Structure formats: C-alpha cells, structure tokens
C-alpha cells in the first residue's frame, strides 16, 4: 500500500508539471481527485491495511490527498489570473472601418470650375495672398477715400497700410495685364481675407475665382452669355439665376448674378462682374482705345453652398466629418 501511495504521488508530481491548459488541469482532476479518481480509490483500500500499519498509511494517504489538492488549487489560481489579465477578443465583432479622406467640397468646386472655364478657353494663373495697396486698390481705380480701405474691411499687414491680405482676387488681374499682352483669357483662383462679421453667407477668409478676358471687341453680351453657360454647366438647366446692375470701381458697367438656392425662394449673390474700366486697362499698360475686356469674381464657398444645398457657409469649415463626408 505504501508503495502504491508513493507511485501515485510520483505520478501526480510528474503529470502536474506538464499541465499547460485549463483542459489539461480538468483531466488531472478527473484522473486523481474526483470520487472515483486514483487518490480517493486508495482510501477504499484502507480497510485491507493491517491494523498496526493503519496509522502510518493513513497519515501518508492524507498527505497525498492534501498535496494533490493544493497542486490543483495552485494551478487553478494561476489559470484564473492569466485569464483575468488577457483581454477578451470577440472575433465575431465587425472590423473597424478606416476613414478614407475625401477632397474638401470647396476644393472640389474649384476643380469643377477650373474644368468648365478651361473648356471655354481660359488659362489658369495665381497671385500672392499678401498684396500691396497698389495692386489691391489703386490700380483697380479705388478712390483714396473708398470705404473698402477702411480698417473694418481690410486686414493690414503693415501699419503704413502698404501691405494687406488681399480682399479679393482682382489684384491678380493687374498682375496679368502687367505681364501679358492681349488677348488675355485667364482665371485666377485663390484665398481672400476680409474683416467681416460671420453669418450664414459670410466668412472672413474665403475663396474667389477671378476671370479676365481682354481682346478686341469683347462685349458685355459675351460676359452675360459666359456667366449663363457656366451656371448651366455647373448646375444643369433647372437653375434659376438673375442679373442685377451693380457697382465696382474697376468695372463699368457692373453687374451681379444671383442664383436661387435649391428648394427655397431665396436668392444668393454669387458673382460680381463687368466691363473692365478704362482706367484699370491703363494701370495694366493696355491700350484702352484698342482693347476692351470683361472681368468677374465668383465666391467659391457660395457656389459650393448651392452645389451641396448647405444652408450655412460656416458648416464648410467646422470640420464636422459627418457634414464633409457627404460630398
Ligand atoms: C468682389 O470681390 C469683386 N472683386 C468681384 C469682381 C471681380 C467684380 C471682377 C467685377 C469684376 P464682391 O465683394 O461682391 O466683389 O465679392 C464677390 C463674390 O465673393 C460675392 O458675389 C460672393 O459670392 C463672394 N463673397 C463676398 N464676400 C464674401 C464673404 N464674406 N464670405 C463669403 N463669400 C463672399
């Protein structure tokens, strides 16, 4: 009997060393510890042990039982601890989508507008965001006391008012005339800056696309036709638009085009335009007796609002992914 106890003790020590999983621990329990297991069955054999040996054998057997149970307990705790420290992975969960960026709706509009005007024969050029007062105002025939020069509208970079953040893309017209001879047929997209209070249709930093067409016999009728063709190409035939007479120091006559906002009765001004003023042609070094021209300046965020049916211009720059990813 004593030999048998030793044998089972050795077996327990040997097998317990190779237990690596919870299932293996369970098999160990079934083999040794349950009622019909090897350790318990030794207790049944106690009745055959001679009386004088019963005490010693009993002590040994009880020790075997205690040792094997504590081995089991120790391993059980080890596995429980490991389980608590392992993050549970639910393989049935759907994977995480990665957000693939899209072009900003304003950039999309710029690209669309460039394509449409390219088809109508316009080249593309750019000018600086930081302008001098001459190109932003004087060369464009702004009188010296014009309110747009006032601190309210213009961000001045130098206190002597020599450098400004351009308030519109029209100064690029002058730069084109200075560097090219007619015919000139160019669009000039870019960012502009105004000290404006913000509301649903006004930003302090926005984009314009300037257009300039100078040649012999360029007429206001052509300007109007081009604006209408552009609007139809961008929005389709259902679009409602209207022209209104307006005033800009650098064009004469001047007009503005409004577009009806989709699904509403509201009109929104999207572009200022007109025939280039002879004083402006002169500033650009162009013979105003020989050449005429027209110019226009679209507000790109306003065009984007109509294209996307957004009713607040500020939504374009709040960076709410739920808004931006729709377009
Ligand atoms: C101008 O800036 C003229 N330079 C346009 C022009 C060019 C006229 C060439 C004639 C010849 P105006 O300030 O109206 O004009 O602005 C032109 C367009 O920019 C507006 O029709 C509007 O669509 C947009 N715009 C003007 N102010 C804002 C603003 N604060 N926020 C967003 N868009 C604006």
Keywords:
40% helix, binds adenosine-5'-[phenylalaninyl-phosphate], 11 helices, 20% strand, 327 residues, seven-stranded mixed β-sheet, alpha+beta, BirA Bifunctional Protein, domain 2, two-stranded antiparallel ribbon
Architecture overview:
- The protein has 327 residues and is α+β, with helices and mostly antiparallel strands.
- It has 2 domains: 83 residues; 220 residues, Bira Bifunctional Protein, Domain 2 (BirA Bifunctional Protein, domain 2, 2-Layer Sandwich), CATH 3.30.930.
- 40% of the residues lie in helices and 20% in strands.
- It is built from 11 helices and 9 strands.
- The strands form 2 sheets. A 7-stranded mixed sheet has the order 1-4-5-9-8-7-6, with helices on both faces.
- A hairpin with a 2-residue loop joins strand 6 and strand 7.
- Helix 1 packs parallel to helix 4 and helix 3 runs antiparallel to helix 4.
- It is rod-shaped.
- The protein starts with a helix and ends with a helix.
- The mean pLDDT is 92.
- It binds adenosine-5'-[phenylalaninyl-phosphate].
- Adenosine-5'-[phenylalaninyl-phosphate] binds next to strand 5, strand 7, strand 8, strand 9 and helix 10.
């Amino acid at each position: 009997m004593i030999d048998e106890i030793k044998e089972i003790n050795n077996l327990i020590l040997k097998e317990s060393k190779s237990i690596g999983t919870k299932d293996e621990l369970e098999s160990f329990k079934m083999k040794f510890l349950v009622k019909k297991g090897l350790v318990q069955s030794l207790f049944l054999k106690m009745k055959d042990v001679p009386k004088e040996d019963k005490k010693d054998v009993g002590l040994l057997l009880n020790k075997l039982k205690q040792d094997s149970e504590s081995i089991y307990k120790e391993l059980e705790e080890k596995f429980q601890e490991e389980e608590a420290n392992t993050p549970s992975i639910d393989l049935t969960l759907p994977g995480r989508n990665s957000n693939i960026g899209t072009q900003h709706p304003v950039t999309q509009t710029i690209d669309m507008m460039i394509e449409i005007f390219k088809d109508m024969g316009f080249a593309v050029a750019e000018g600086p965001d930081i302008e001098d007062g001459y190109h932003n105002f004087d060369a464009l025939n702004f009188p010296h006391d014009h309110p747009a020069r006032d601190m309210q509208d213009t961000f001045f970079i130098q206190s002597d008012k020599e450098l400004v953040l351009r308030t519109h893309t029209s100064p690029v017209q002058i730069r084109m005339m200075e560097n090219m001879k007619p015919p000139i047929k160019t669009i000039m997209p870019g960012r502009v800056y105004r000290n404006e209070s913000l509301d649903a249709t006004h930003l302090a930093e926005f984009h314009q696309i300037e257009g300039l067409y100078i040649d012999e016999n360029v007429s206001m009728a052509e300007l109007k036709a081009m604006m209408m063709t552009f609007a139809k190409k961008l929005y389709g035939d259902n679009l409602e638009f209207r022209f209104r007479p307006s005033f800009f120091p650098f064009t004469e006559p001047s007009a503005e085009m409004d577009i009806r906002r989709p699904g509403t009765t509201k009109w929104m001004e999207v572009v200022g335009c007109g025939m280039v003023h002879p004083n402006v042609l002169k500033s650009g070094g162009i013979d105003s007796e020989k050449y005429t021209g027209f110019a226009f300046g679209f507000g790109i965020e306003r065009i984007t609002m109509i294209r996307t049916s957004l009713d607040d211009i500020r939504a374009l720059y709040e960076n709410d992914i739920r808004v931006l990813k729709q377009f």
